[in-house]
Amino acid sequence: MDVRFVARNAVIDDELRSYMREKVSKLGKFFNRILDNQVLVSFGRGMHNVEITSNANGVIMRSEESAPDMRKAFDKALKNIERQIKRHNDYLKDRALLRTRDISFNLEGFVETEPLLPAEEEIVKTKRFPLRPMTAKEATMQMELLGHEFFLFKNVETGLVNVVYKRKNGGFGLIEPLE
């Protein structure tokens, strides 16, 4: 299993890198479809920030935590990823999806571009990625795994691009274009 490290305004010493690699590599025992992982470490505002992203054959799981100590931030983020993997495994078992198609995006497909608008209307980040067909339920699950408020996907039932989102009063919403 591949583990990549990225450090921004921080240094990962060899001992900590070895500790992180060992712990992240053990994620495979929870879910054998994990292909690669990225550990992003940064330091800002007096806190160590650790973001762990795991790609499980297209299903992206992500956790971000902060703490005064880098190892504590890492351990908290790792615990969140383990919890997401368990929840995903339970979902797959409940829905008998173990033998179905991939249901999400490949992290390698993201491309960041430069802002195009003036500063007062500036878009600070643009992401481009391939849309994979999935059901609204699968898209909702992927949104939850990523910790996002909304999720763009191609609806397998209609063939159209849809958005699922978290509603403020609880539950989820689905945005469909008029044909």
Question: Descriptors for this entry?
Answer:
single chain, 179 residues, alpha+beta, SHC Adaptor Protein, 2 domains, 4-stranded mixed beta sheet, translation regulation, Ribosome hibernation promoting factor, RHF-like, ribosomal small subunit binding, ribonucleoprotein
Write the layout of secondary structure elements.
Blueprint: E1 2-8, H1 14-25, E2 36-44, E3 47-56, E4 59-67, H2 70-95, E5 111-112, E6 127-128, E7 133-134, H3 136-146, E8 150-155, E9 161-166, E10 172-175
Parallel strand pairs: 1-2, 7-8
Antiparallel strand pairs: 2-3, 3-4, 5-6, 8-9, 9-10
Question: What does this entry look like structurally?
Answer:
- There is one protein chain.
- The protein has 179 residues and is an alpha+beta fold.
- It has 2 domains: 2-95, Double Stranded RNA Binding Domain; 107-175, Sigma 54 modulation/S30EA ribosomal protein, C-terminal domain (SHC Adaptor Protein, 2-Layer Sandwich), CATH 3.30.505.
- The protein is built from 3 helices and 10 strands; from the N terminus they run E-H-E-E-E-H-E-E-E-H-E-E-E.
- It has helices spanning 14-25, 70-95, 136-146, and strands spanning 2-8, 36-44, 47-56, 59-67, 111-112, 127-128, 133-134, 150-155, 161-166, 172-175.
- Strands 1-2-3-4 form a 4-stranded mixed β-sheet.
- The longest helix has 26 residues, at 70-95.
- It is globular, with a radius of gyration of 18 Å.
